[in-house]
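Lab notebook, bench 4. We co-purified these components, and the gel suggests they stay together. Before we commit to crystallization screens, I want a quick structural picture of the whole thing.
Request: model the full complex, all chains together.
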Amino acid sequence: MTDVMPDPLTLAILLPLFGAIAAFLLPRAAPAIGLGAVVATAAAIAVLGHLVVQAGTIFVPLGGWGAPLGIELRADGLALAMLGLTALIALGVGLGALAAFAGETEVGGQPMARQRAFFWPLCLLLLTGMNGVYLSNDLFNLYVMLEVISLAAVGLAVLGGTVAALRAGLAYMYASLLGALMMLLGVGFVYLQTGRLDLAGLAGAPDSAALSAAFGLMLVGLALKTALFPLHFWLPEAHANATAPASALLSALVVKAGLYILLRLAEAGPFPGEAILTLMGVLGTGAVLWGGVQALRAERLKLLVAWSTVAQMGLIFVALARAGLEGLSDSWRAAALLILAHAVAKAGMFLAAGRIKDVIGHDRISELDRSAVRPALAQLAFALAAISLIGLPPSLGFIGKWSLMEGAMMAGNWHWVAVTMAGTLLSVAYFTRALTGFLRFDRVRAPLDEHRGWALADAPPVVLAGLAVGLGLAAGPILAVLDLGTPFGAIP
Amino acid sequence: MIALSQATIYGLAGLAVFGLGLMGVLGAAERLRRLIALNLCAAGAGMVLIAAAWRSPPAVPDPVPHALVITGIVVMVSATAVALALIRRLHSLETDTDD
Amino acid sequence: MLEIAGTAFMALGALFFVAGTIGLLRFPDVFCRLHALTKADGMGLALVCLSAAIGAPDGGEALRILLIWVFVALASATGGHLVARHARRAGPPVREVRP
Amino acid sequence: MTVLLAFDLLLAASIVGLAAATLLMRDAFAMIVAFIVFGMLLALGWARLVAPDVALAEVAIGAGLSGALLLRTLAHLRGGGLSAQGGASVSAPTNGATQGINALLAGLATCALGLAYLGAPQNVPGLEAHVTDAMPESGVTHPVTAVLLNFRAYDTLMEVVVLLAAVIVVWQVERGLAETPAPALGTVYQGFARVALPVAVIAGGYLLWIGAEAPGGAFQAGAVLGAVAVLGLLSRHVRPAPAHRPLARGTFVAGTAIFALVALGVSGAGRETFEYPPAHAKTLILLIEAMVTVSIAATLAALFHGREPVTVATGKETT
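Here is the predicted assembly.
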């Protein structure tokens, strides 16, 4: 199918896998191997990008069989954007992890050397699974990939080894497993109805009870995995109690896998009706409001950030629902933009929150201040990420929200505009809680310590958060990439 | 009128097992019981898939669902092992702090 | 002739299994239950294997069935021993039968 | 025919009944045993549906190894033994109202699914015709093995990756736990192990070899060999030590690594990834299966054993 041998699609999946294997075999060299594997994967994705720009959608029939007997990989603009995003975040978080797991001291949990040794195999397995999901064109393969992601993500969530992290990790594991099993049963129903497993098989299928059951199961399962309100119960604790690089990966990437599959299902199949889409928007609204209120009430910085993930995921569902079933062929762009914006900003924000916690020794919001040891660059990164998540121009978040509201207005759905506005106000309110803390002098209780200067560890959050703001200026090219290979059919 | 074929019997039984597992996951209080309930869900989904191998009346069953279910079984034992490791570790830490 | 013998052995084996199961359910303590299980089910298994071996299409198949019998018998004897040993050490004493 | 149908009805009812009984058992030990019996009956059901490969996998992995894992965990929770009543207290679920609503919702959803199932078309062909057409080029003659290792080999590779991920996470979670003293099993067990383990190794090899043309294959063989290793661990024939760690890591990844390397290696010259040259397909599949079998066996045994063997050095990690 492609001139390059072996094809870059397979390499984007297998290179991180080889990296994970090598990092597991050589624990001491894990950071170097890990970063090398991420860079190699990014190179494969760059080659793939070149091919997609030239040829549009690329299919690779693995084993030469082709669908429906074999499994096909598929790459188009949407997949390419997600792949690039994931590589970018893995690189940023990986560099952040170098600093976060440096040193030998142990703070009540796992020894640092062990955390360092195990972070990389799990991170690379996660990358394998994520890239596998983006490139998959087969329902059962998506289920297996989701399980790869689940196990790696749970391993990352409990890396710190504290009781709180383990408890949250187990709850996460159960939610994730149940979601995957619902997806599996849904795949069974698809097979009953169509006799095939590839996504293309959904397209021609007649609307039937079995197919509705399949969609119902898969949507509920994926909603559980993406923590759509009210199935979000597992997310805040799991994301807040993980170590910072793990939180960044979980919040920025893992929840997006379910969303991406939802997009692909909506693209492929006869989506089960206007009402379901509206329901997704309504639940998204619930997430925006409930997540916002809980973020306002959170006492710890990382918990606030985690609740904001619940709210932001809700917003993405609102984006999907903004113009109804007919508007879906355009609404996916708004959703994709918000996915990209949230991923970059949230990765930067969690790394920044982790730095702040490392430097000042706690992350209680009521005691944040402008003390002399203040991690100024991390606070800057937090603020930049907040700008994008709130949606101030020219950030990528602004472009996403603008695109959401524009489509909603054109369809005359003012209620979705109101929801977006309400969510924006709430996000201003809860991020301000943290930001004002960064500016206060009157909370200093301990004697002023010497400013510790800037560390290399400040670079990844600043760069990621800066990108979250700056990429808004590149919205045109990003949209052009998303439209490569025309996902969701022709551009209206 | 629906013909009560062999596959239909096991398919419906599979759905019932999945439903029971679902109830267990939602209702069980203990960690082990929830995990077993999840395993029941997996078994139920597997039964539906294996029954799906017999829909059209061929002489031999469709091997693809068989392969899928074997994959599912291996995936499930992996997940079970991870969950059990978490349970054991949590138990150790909790009994340490409680005493 | 062989077919009749096979069926008869199978039925007899099933009868032993039923007896063993009744013993498992009705007997008062671990040791009695174990007695019922290992003895009756061992016999039942032997008969069922014999029946299956008679019905086997060729000698190789029959040999494999007999091997299965040998190993299941070994395993169940060992398992029975382990259960009894554990019960003797950890559990309550043998229940006295009152006249 | 009707007698068999009655048997199927009885078996299906028993399966559902055992699933319910498993969840209703008050004692955790009884619950696990019921779950294992459930797995056995399930395998019988799958044998009735002419899915012997799946039945084998279910008995060996779904019921057997899962059961062993569950029992080992229960022993840990109860402080070394299974009969002690302390530790994992089996409390009755609380909050009846929520429970009722949940049960009602799950029941309604299941009924809806049942209706949808009955409404599904009965005459849509599956992929069996495609499989039959492609079988001559697959390198093996057993369709399930062809699907697992050729047509959908990519899924199978990822399945082995899931196993690898599991053992990495288990090692990461459970480091440095003090070893629970293994129960002394006595001379009868030791004698049994001495006879049974070599035979089981042969049986595993046989399952692997026969998989190319008949039910069996890497997963069933790996499960049997994994059970051998578990028995070896229990009888103390196998004693994991810190020095074994590099070997263990190598064994865990061998299957995944070889599988992925072969998949990439055969590509090129107009061939896609995973597209084995027909002349070498059988050799390559057997090579992959052999490596995967060894990896699966080692991984399953490691999942049972749990913790990574480490020298207790820091002193911070106690029990």
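Chain A touches chain D through 61 residues (CB under 8 Å). Worth comparing against the SEC data before the next meeting. Chain A has a mean pLDDT of 90.
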